[in-house]
Design goal:
The protein is of the alpha+beta class and 290 residues long. It folds into three domains: 3-32 and 204-289, Efflux pump adaptor protein, beta barrel domain (Elongation Factor Tu (Ef-tu), domain 3, Beta Barrel); 45-66 and 171-198, RNA polymerase II/Efflux pump adaptor protein, barrel-sandwich hybrid domain (OB fold (Dihydrolipoamide Acetyltransferase, E2P), Beta Barrel); 70-169, Orthogonal Bundle (Helix Hairpins). The chain is built from two helices and 16 strands. The chain has a six-stranded antiparallel beta barrel with strand order 3-12-15-14-13-16. The protein is elongated and about 125 Å long.
């Protein structure tokens, strides 16, 4: 199953200020990494048992593409495999028989050559046995060549079966996370192509808040630093930690930098916030106190 992770950064810097304790407050919005779940094989959606907003578990089967053609193909390939295996068994038995005849005839031929020298056998008998030896040698070479081709064919069928089984596995869309369905793009009975998105899911147990810190305040923060996140009308306070600081600055407004606007040099900072109680929602405005 092919997974596309889209990081939605829909964050606005509304500004920041310092309180009497020399703490700075920055404004941002709660966001999360979105996982797009797409079809890895084309076909009709047989089942799609989840809806938007529904909780899902890791390894849960969320959708399944119709597999009737693949199952029929697998049965055909298994039949071909049994046929080639029976053919190989027959060729090996035939080879054993011809090799036995060859060995017996060759031994008789060697004895006859000695008998011809002693006058106990005719040249015609010797020549007939020599011809038989050459015939058996040719037969052995031919059977071995057939066996080699049959073994190669068997390997090809095994490879084809592996591909079919892989396609059967890819017909299921399995959740890679514990989380929630964010978006549902298709419905049961619809035809989808390979790579077409069907669902979007996210793990809301930890949210991200993107804030922007001025160049002057950048030296006051570091990765791993604990911060306070304030959300909702009741100003619920939660703990967060700085998980990422951009190495590149941005300018606001995006005009030519002059001495008058140097204070607008800012750096993006991502704050991770545990959300086990589900207080934070995607897009919710929050304050971050550092």
């Amino acid at each position: 199953m092919k997974k596309i992770i889209i990081l939605l950064i829909v964050i606005t810097l509304n500004g920041c200020f310092s309180d009497s304790d020399e703490q700075s407050i920055y404004y941002g919005r709660a966001d999360v990494d979105i996982i797009r779940l797409s079809a890895q094989s084309a076909g009709i959606i047989d089942s799609l048992a989840v809806d938007e907003g529904e909780q899902i578990r890791k390894n849960q089967v969320l959708a399944k593409i119709n597999t009737e053609r693949l199952e029929a193909q697998l049965r055909q390939q298994n039949a071909q495999l049994r046929e080639i295996e029976e053919s190989i068994i027959g060729l090996r038995a035939q080879l054993n028989q011809v090799e036995y005849q060859y060995q017996f005839t060759k031994e008789t031929y060697e004895k006859t050559k000695k008998m011809v020298k002693d006058g106990a056998a005719t040249i015609q008998n010797r020549d007939e046995l020599e011809t038989k030896v050459k015939v058996f040698e040719a037969q052995i070479t031919g059977i071995r060549s057939q066996l080699k081709a049959a073994e190669s064919k068997k390997q090809q069928i095994h490879a084809a079966i592996d591909i079919t089984k892989l396609n059967l596995r890819d017909s299921r869309i399995v959740s890679p996370i514990d989380g929630i369905i964010i978006n549902k793009f298709r419905h049961q009975g619809e035809l989808v192509g390979q790579g077409m998105p069907i669902l979007e899911a996210a793990d809301l147990s930890e949210m991200n808040v993107m804030i922007y810190v001025s160049f002057a305040d950048l030296s006051k923060i570091k990765i791993g630093q604990e911060v306070e996140v304030i959300a909702g009308e009741d100003e619920k306070t939660m703990k967060g930690r700085i998980k990422w600081i951009s190495s590149e600055s941005e300018f606001t407004p995006k005009t030519i930098l002059t001495k008058e606007v140097r204070t607008t040099l800012v750096y993006a900072v991502k704050v991770a916030v545990p959300n086990g109680e589900g207080i934070l929602k995607i897009g919710m405005p929050v304050d971050v106190r550092i």
